[in-house]
Design a protein that fits this description.
The chain is mainly α. The chain is built from seven helices and three strands, in the order ααβββααααα. It has a three-stranded mixed sheet with strand order 1-3-2. Helix 4 packs across helix 6. This is Putative membrane protease YugP.
């Protein structure tokens, strides 16, 4: 496919994404060296917050891998990487409490999380078939295939956009709870902000790339439509 002017913006967004990933690793590594004043491990902080929110039935498990932390809404399980689970650093507590933020969102039926869960089956199908429709449409100059591909790709883009408030809200909940529960002191908030802020930036960059790609496909579609009409 020929180079499109939008590709320049996409490359910039892609560069932002790579930079954000370096920031995540860098900030996590930096604040992994700083022990939280509370002395709690990520596992202890997670269990404490879950219990105080009445989520006694949500287990906290340790999983292999670096920064593999996540909340599984299907099994309602918080899974923490070894560094986070056993660590007692600012970074460990920040990541652990962020995942608890998602568990709390699930409990209170946070609207954007509910929407994200409902979108997932459609997006899972759409993201798998959209690239083939777009590729086939451009190779065959078939506007109907391109149009269908754009519609399906739009679902995937919408999913990433919806993910943004979900992640920002989980981080906001995490920070507020860490402060109110006394897990961190005022001077430690900077570390929490850096760890969670860098992680949020990766989602922003991913969403930006998707939106720009979608806009590129839409512009190409309309350009080809005008060409065929002429």
């Amino acid at each position: 496919m020929f180079f499109h002017p939008m590709d320049f913006l996409i490359l910039i967004a892609f560069g932002l994404s790579i930079w954000a990933q370096f920031k995540v690793k860098g900030n996590f590594s930096k604040w992994s060296e700083v022990r939280a004043s509370s002395g709690m491990t990520g596992a202890q902080a997670a269990r404490t917050l879950l219990d105080r929110q009445g989520l006694y039935d949500v287990p906290v498990e340790v999983v292999p891998g670096a920064l593999s932390d996540h909340y599984d809404p299907i099994s309602r399980t918080v899974r923490l990487s070894e560094d986070v689970y056993y660590g007692s650093s600012i970074a460990s507590l920040s990541v652990a409490c962020h995942e608890i933020g998602h568990a709390i969102q699930h409990k209170v039926h946070y609207p954007m999380l509910v929407l994200r869960h409902r979108m997932f089956p459609v997006v899972n199908f759409a993201s798998g078939i959209a690239p083939f429709l777009l590729m086939g449409g451009f190779l065959l100059h078939a506007l109907n295939l391109i149009g269908l591909g754009i519609i399906l790709f739009s679902a995937a883009v919408a999913f990433q956009v919806v993910t943004l408030p979900v992640e920002f809200n989980a981080s906001a909940r995490a920070k507020a709870l860490m402060i109110s529960e006394g897990f961190i002191r005022n001077e430690e908030e900077r570390g929490v902000n850096q760890v969670l802020g860098a992680a949020a930036l990766t989602y922003v960059a991913a969403a930006l790339i998707s939106v720009l790609e979608l806009l590129k496909y839409v512009l190409i579609f309309f350009n080809q439509s005008r060409t065929e009409e002429d």
